[in-house]
Design goal:
heterodimer; A: 285 residues; alpha/beta; seven-stranded mixed β-sheet; three-stranded antiparallel β-sheet; B: alpha/beta; Rossmann fold; six-stranded mixed β-sheet; 6 helices; 9 strands; alpha-D-ribose 1-methylphosphonate 5-phosphate C-P-lyase activity (chain A); EC 4.7.1.1 (chain A); metal-binding (chain A); iron (chain A)
Chain lengths: 285, 196
């Protein structure tokens, strides 16, 4: 089923070299957003064009690819990106986290801990954590150069003064190796503790914004907080309705029109593996 | 002479470059680890690993500086045919290639700007040996510490002090490659009394 009319992994070699050079600089300066000449891809912006370009630049024919969208292997975005690389790169694909060597993700980190041979590629919509505080690129660039991150702390403080706690629940800003403030992409803050000291390589691609950045393995990543308002990863206070897991991130699913709802694991592979092992939640059929 | 320059490239450029890049990326992401890098057969004195790194990273967009014995006609021809990279002085280089002594002084290469620290040179250092012993390395990408035979440590400590500016290094020997990004703290082999 491999498409022979395209170069391996769709992109031409000169484009891949450009992305690869940018990836090496991104790994050398953890958390810093490297500009790159993002290409038009055969999918709209917002569907993961940045992640797809990074994946295309790192894939080899020996890789096993997994693609998730909010934790799920079976949603439109995940299915179409997976079949895109099946067709253009001829790589093997899987839904099992442990079997994958490259995992492209939209807004989740898998529940199963990543290992040394793996690469996690994030799709990023807005790579600049300061963008909603300062719209001018020329200014945010200076703020990063000068390590001027006071504005971000003011924003978190305003959360506290308005809501009584830091109300940012996803895309929660982190500080990398005590230098760059980085947007971890819109992952729930539940996933933030998995960013640091991770054995896998983590790469972030933002196609429309033409930026990519990276976290090498075993990098120090700290979620911003205050001494009297420490960072707290949070999740819905329920067990999974299907597999009964109490340690996974949950989606709330509305099941009828009279207020009925259930909570299920957002990571479908994790949930299915647990169900296969015989774990049952209260809503399991 | 001419035919030699036409040979020694990747036999299957797309997949060979993909495998080569993964070796280079793993080396850069995990400083001090040594990886096999094959697929290229460049003319002497260039090592196969350095040749593969050039074919993977170089094209007409990457000004390249050749230092010392790397600056020879056979190699210039090979690089011109396979990559088309413009050859420049250290001050304009995005990539530089040569033995450690010939690449000096390091202050000649661009280290980036505070707004764009990525606009810095990457140096490909041809080494007579590449062993997992010698200088102790710490930093992002390294769990505790790792060891690598570096030509010296003082230059890398000075480079580390420039962070987030600075140069990044690839070390090649035969068919093997290791890397040292600007984030890595290198300290002299035990015995010497250098403070971190």
């Amino acid at each position: 089923m491999t498409e022979t009319a395209y170069n391996f992994a769709y992109l031409d070699e000169q484009t891949k070299r450009m992305i690869r050079r940018a990836l090496l600089k991104a790994l050398a300066i953890p958390g810093y957003q490297v500009p790159f000449a993002s290409r038009e891809m055969p999918m709209p912006y917002g569907w993961g064009t940045g992640g797809v370009q990074v994946s295309a630049a790192v894939l080899t024919p020996d890789d096993v690819l997994k693609v998730i969208d909010q934790g799920a292997d079976d949603t439109t975005n995940a299915v179409s990106i997976r079949s895109f690389f099946q067709r253009t790169a001829g790589v093997a694909t899987t839904t099992r986290t442990q079997e994958a060597t490259v995992i492209q993700t939209r807004h989740r980190i898998p529940e199963v801990p990543l290992t040394e041979g793996q690469i996690l590629v994030y799709q990023v919509p807005i790579p600049e954590p300061l963008r909603f505080l300062e719209p001018r690129e020329s200014e945010t660039r200076k703020m990063h150069a000068l390590e001027d991150y006071g504005l971000m702390h003011v924003k978190l403080y305003e959360d506290i003064s308005r809501h009584g706690h830091i109300a940012t629940a996803y895309a929660y800003p982190v500080r990398v190796e005590a230098r760059y403030v980085m947007d971890p992409s819109p992952i729930p803050k539940f996933d933030n503790p998995k960013l640091g000291d991770c054995p896998a390589i983590q790469l972030f691609g933002a196609g429309r914004e033409q930026r990519l950045y990276a976290l090498p393995p075993w990098t120090q990543v700290v979620s911003l907080d205050f001494e009297d308002h420490p960072f707290e990863p949070s999740k819905a206070d329920h067990p999974c309705g299907l597999c009964g897991a109490t340690d996974s991130y949950l989606d709330e699913v509305i099941v009828d029109d009279v207020g009925g709802r259930m909570f299920v694991c957002s990571d479908t592979d994790y949930c299915e593996a647990r169900q296969a092992q015989g774990h049952r939640g209260k809503d399991a059929a | 002479m001419q035919t030699h320059a036409l040979e020694g490239g990747f036999t299957d450029p797309a997949t060979a470059a993909a495998h080569a890049f993964r070796a280079v990326m793993e080396a850069m992401a995990r400083p001090g680890t040594i990886h096999r890098l094959t697929g290229a057969m460049p003319p002497a004195p260039l090592s196969p690993a350095a040749g593969a790194a050039l074919l993977t990273l170089c094209d007409t967009d990457t000004p390249l500086h050749l230092a010392g014995e790397a600056d020879c006609p056979a190699l210039r021809d090979w690089i011109a045919f396979h990559t088309g990279a413009p050859l420049v002085e250290p001050g304009q280089a995005m990539l530089a290639l040569g033995p450690w002594q010939a690449l000096a002084p390091l202050s000649a290469y661009p280290v980036g700007t505070p707004e764009y620290p990525d606009r810095s040179a990457t140096l490909i250092v041809e080494c007579p040996a590449l062993e997992p012993k010698g200088a102790t390395l710490r930093g992002p990408g390294i769990r505790d510490t790792t060891a690598l035979s570096l030509p010296e440590t003082e230059a890398f400590r000075a480079n580390r002090a420039l962070f987030p500016l600075g140069l990044d290094f690839l070390f090649t020997c035969g068919d093997r490659i290791a890397a040292l990004p600007r984030t890595t703290l290198a300290s002299a082999p035990s015995g010497a009394t250098e403070d971190l």
